[in-house]
Amino acid sequence: MRAPVADAAVSTLALLHTQSFDWRVWKLYPSFMVGWLLFAALYFLCIGPLRSRFPGSAPASKRQVASFSAALLAMVLSLQGPLHELSDYFLFSAHMVQHLVLILVMPPLLLAGIPDWLLRPAIQVRPVRAVARALTLPLVAFALNNVIFLAWHFPGPYDVMMRDHGIHVAMHLTIMVTGVIMWWPVMSPLPELPRIAPPLQMVYLFLVGIPMMVSAALITFSANALYSWYVEAPRIFALSALDDQRLGGVIMWVPGGLVLWVAITAVYFRWTHREVAEDEAGVRIRPPATRAGLIVPPPYPGLESGRRA
Question: Which residues of 32-49 are buried (b: 16+ CB within 10 A; e: fewer)?
């Protein structure tokens, strides 16, 4: 029999949930939209009217603009509207979809959309350059992303985060920032903070998925519902709290792993295309070693699209 104190706590928690859901209703939250609009405006101002203020700048390519715009769209679709309502008030599985978009989809699109000259002034500042060099080392980027992601998904921190809007916002910011850092060794737009070599990129992406798969397995095969927030959520679909949790674990496990395998495949074909292009051109340039002793291909004109317009 449940204790009266526990019943009172559960009843209080249940009051925090929205009682209805409608796919047709799009709620926009100022706390998100103000930051999102400022971020978008800053990018388009810098690649447009303010571009002349950046030394060595060139027009952003259509591919870069499209990629950055897709990253912005991924943010707004996952953090506003129906998916936001489902994940915040009803379904753990919807929250996992939201998190995978913010970690595995948005960051590579964002990095692919940023011209190198746009970031270069920041790394001219010595403290910024030192911190950026440390954070974008593959081992650091790998550890930082996985530690932050896994820490938020322990039941205690997760339930605290779901009950406090400020902590929830901080969680989303941390997983997005560490997601960008995690993708940096594969998608870096800056030669000064370079990508690792393609074979190591494939190994790195494979390893990135292992902690997520372990966490997903523990969530999927748990005999009990782990997150009290969703235990007390209204059941708007024919899913119990435990079934919803298991579905969320499977989403983290299968689609999450699939995204990383697609990325590994893309790296492989980009690498082989580059090798073929160099052979056809009769050119084989030995790329420089990075600060970590890893070999990184430099940008060759005509061999890597989207770097310059």
Answer: beeebeeebeebeebbee
What does residue 295 show for φ and ψ, rounded to 5 degrees? -90, 130
CB 21 within 8 A of CB 90: yes
CA distance 278 to 281: 5
Residue 101 backbone dihedrals phi, psi, to 5 degrees: -65, -40
pTM for the full model?
A: 0.84
Token code pair at residue 214: 């372990």
Phi, psi at 289, each rounded to 5°: -85, 140
Residues of the chain with pLDDT under 70: 1-19, 279-280, 282-309
CA–CA separation, 161 vs 12, rounded Å?
16
- In whole angstroms, give the CA distance from residue 58 to residue 309: 7
Residues with Cβ within 8 Å of 202's Cβ and at least 6 positions away in sequence, in order, are 264, 267, 268
Beta-strand (E) ranges in the chain? none
> Are 55 and 305 contacting, i.e. CB atoms less than 8 angstroms apart?
no
With H, G, I as helix, E, B as strand and everything else as coil, classify residue 289. strand
Q: Are 135 and 104 in contact (CB under 8 A)?
A: no
